[in-house]
Amino acid sequence: MKKTYSEENYLKAIYHIDQNGLKVSPKAIAAALDNNPASVIDMIKKLQEKLLISYDKVKGAKLTASGQASALDIIRKHRLWEVFLVEKLGYDWDEVHDIAEQLEHIQDDRLAAKLDAFLGNPSFDPHGDPIPAENGKMPVYANIRLSDLEVGNKGKVGSVRDTSTPFLKYLKQLQLGLGSSIEVLDKLEFDQSMIISINSGPAQTVSSKMTSNILLIPG
């Protein structure tokens, strides 16, 4: 069943909100898509009619099995395109998100499979996010936030939750990327900012906003 670009974006947004453990309310969807609540309500009705979501005012929206499969298919295409743009065309990791947002909507059933094979069946995109397999299965991925570590703990960067250009450029300035090792030297009670060492380098103070968007592999 073909879907409009807008419908695909809604399904992807609902998936991400739910994965973050939040209630998928019209307000949350509107915030995620920078849309107005009235438009969100209209789309919720359309997605219900297509049996892609269920909706309850108290519990919020939930993807049906069909809706989940569609959302994962879009996410799979997006992340494969990001790998292609970085590995084959030489884009940097802070340049690819918006381009992949456009490419993910190409509706050729064979393209994602061919792209996946061409890239050597990658498990993760350039930001460390897992790429769903064709059957929707996710590889095991980093899921411990830097902000949850205690003083003295160490880990390696496995993924970043914020893939916006400003955030990724900030990480580049810190010389922090996927695979970088981080040690927590201190955690400030006042605002939960941290003093960390990156790759055994000098101590640096980083904000709680930054640490909550870094996912680590412990050890």
Query: Mind telling me the C-alpha Rg?
Result: 19 Å
Structural class, judged by helices and strands?
alpha+beta
Average pLDDT figure: 93
What fraction strand? 15-25%
Question: What string gives the helices and strands in order?
Answer: HHHEEHHHEEHEEEHE
Low-confidence stretches: none
Walkthrough of the structure:
The structure is a single chain. This protein has helices spanning 5-19, 26-33, 37-49, 65-87, 97-103, 111-118, 165-173, 208-211; strands at residues 53-56, 60-63, 144-145, 154-160, 181-187, 194-198, 203-206, 214-218. It is of the alpha+beta class and 219 residues long. It has a six-stranded antiparallel β-sheet with strand order 3-8-4-5-6-7. It has a two-stranded antiparallel sheet with strand order 1-2. A hairpin with a 4-residue loop joins strand 6 (194-198) and strand 7 (203-206). It is globular, with a radius of gyration of 19 Å. The mean pLDDT is 93.
List the helices and strands and how they pair.
Layout: H1 5-19, H2 26-33, H3 37-49, E1 53-56, E2 60-63, H4 65-87, H5 97-103, H6 111-118, E3 144-145, E4 154-160, H7 165-173, E5 181-187, E6 194-198, E7 203-206, H8 208-211, E8 214-218
Antiparallel strand pairs: 1-2, 3-8, 4-5, 4-8, 5-6, 6-7
Helix pairs in contact: 1-2, 1-4, 2-3, 4-5
